[in-house]
Amino acid sequence: MRVAAVSAHFGRDVGQCVAKIEGIVADARSQDVGLLVFPDATLGGYLGGLGPGDDTGLPPALDAGSPELARVAAAAGDMVVCVGYRESAGDRCFNSAVCVTGDGVLGRHRKVHQPAGELPAYAAGDGFAAFDTPLGRMGMLIDYDKTFPEAARTLAGRGAQLVACLSAWPASLTNRAPRLVQDRQSRLFDLYDCARAAENQVVWVSANQTGAMGRLRFLGQSKVVGPGGDVLARTWAKAGLAVADLDVAAEVGRARLVLDHLRELKPEAYG
């Protein structure tokens, strides 16, 4: 199977975002990609900051059945595609991700863990669901979710062998380094990707925004990580696709052959 994580910038114009998604999907299809993971906030962009005075306007909110998402599914065809958007649900909005093919929706996730600056814009999700796809059982996380080991562990415990993590992860706002690769948040972004893959012995597909929105400068660094925590492909800070070829079930099975972290858990000892 060929899997790919997208590094790209997505702004407020939803029509432009959809057209960009369609172009990237077409490029990925020409490379025989089976799973394509886009960043968080693919449709309408992310916030412009995480504090007072950072208002660049909220991302547009889309209904889960919006025509824009229908266009994404149509573009996906037989490819499995994950995208992020601000979901309108009654009187609340969520930072959401959806996994689709041309046949419809395979899975959904609402971001559970929120930095304080997100609270005015999004309500929190309340769970982590694994779901079946033509490529195997998988789950999704959004951005800050991956900071918490329990999130990825829950998905792995529910059978996910693939985890798609969609991010709009910026450089540090309080102690920004002169070069992105030296930034504290850059180091943490990579650390969490590799640690969560290795802890749970899963294939980890991490996509991130590039460019800037308001005060936020996004890191890129999209990557595919194997179940041993090894980076199989990455984009660094530039826009592009991180593409890796692997047999997910075989890789996960090999990683768990001697040491199977999920089987060897001791929940009774954790209190």
Automatic annotation (TrEMBL):
Matching SUPFAM superfamilies = Carbon-nitrogen hydrolase
- Claim: Transmembrane helix is one of the keywords in the record: no
Question: Which UniProt key words apply to this protein?
Answer: Hydrolase
Q: Does the keyword Hydrolase apply?
A: yes
> What is the protein name stated in its UniProt record?
Nitrilase/cyanide hydratase and apolipoprotein N-acyltransferase
The CN hydrolase domain covers 1-248
InterPro entries with a match to the protein in the record: Aliph_Amidase/BUP, C-N_Hydrolase, C-N_Hydrolase_sf
* Molecular-function annotations in GO: hydrolase activity, acting on carbon-nitrogen (but not peptide) bonds, in linear amides; nitrilase activity
Q: What class of enzyme is it?
A: hydrolase
Organism lineage string: Bacteria, Bacillati, Actinomycetota, Actinomycetes, Geodermatophilales
| Source taxon at top rank | Bacteria
* Listed EC numbers: 3.5.5.1
